[in-house]
Amino acid sequence: MNRPMESPQAAFYRQFIAQGDLCFDVGANSGDKTNVFLELGARVVAVEPQIKCADILRNKFGLNPNCIIIDKALGTGEGEGIMYLNDADVLSTLSTEWIERMQESGRFQGALWRNQISVPLTSLDRLIEQHGVPAFCKIDVEGYEWHVLQGLSLPLPALSIEFAEETIHNSVHCIHRLLELGDYEFNCVKGDNTSLEFNQWVDLATICSHLGQRTERFMWGDVYARQKG
Predict the structure, then answer these.
(1) Neighbour count for residue 90 (Cβ, 10 Å)
(2) Confidence (pTM)
(3) Is 24 within 8 Å of 47 (Cβ atoms)?
(4) Residues 48-95: tens digit of each pLDDT
(5) Domain 8-227 - what CATH class?
(6) Most CB atoms within 10 A, among 12, 61, 66, 108?
(7) Sheet architecture: strand order including 73-74
(8) Domain map of the chain by residue range?
């Protein structure tokens, strides 16, 4: 019997994720990446504080024993946070700075953050206590990545953080934070591409210089980090 063809996203993430691995999908939204990780045979903890999105995740994956849905946001520790809601739920965020910079740049013209809600907060450290150390952790939280990493006290084997040209300084802070935790090397992907920018993984100076070039307007993507060795 022929096996179904693997999706480009699954083929890309296979370099980080093996059958049976634990993954964290932080900022899971409606579960696109959760679905990819499950396709690879991973066990997934999907973290999503927006009620509408968490309901979508439960409808998609609620009966899957390999998926646990956490309807919270991540931050420095346990508590409550304010989430600013956009009509496009992928733009909802806990970061007022991210909203301000996006409004200044005009990236999302017409986008409005009309409402705000209180959301429960937990941390990566707490998730690790409850579920174990993930082989891979995706963090896509619209400018709140630094706060998420402040809630982590040990190095993870591999992870990704979203970047955007308006908040490159935040991405650089995140990279420095990772190097406080462990010995990492870096790469990146622009937009929704499924190929790494560098043929060889690079150091702090190289990845920061690359991000700082801003060769195109409204550049965005993900920085990938993996422990050396």
Answers:
(1) 14
(2) 0.95
(3) yes
(4) 999 999 999 999 999 999 999 999 999 999 999 999 999 999 999 999
(5) alpha beta
(6) 61
(7) 73-74, 113-122, 79-86
(8) 8-227
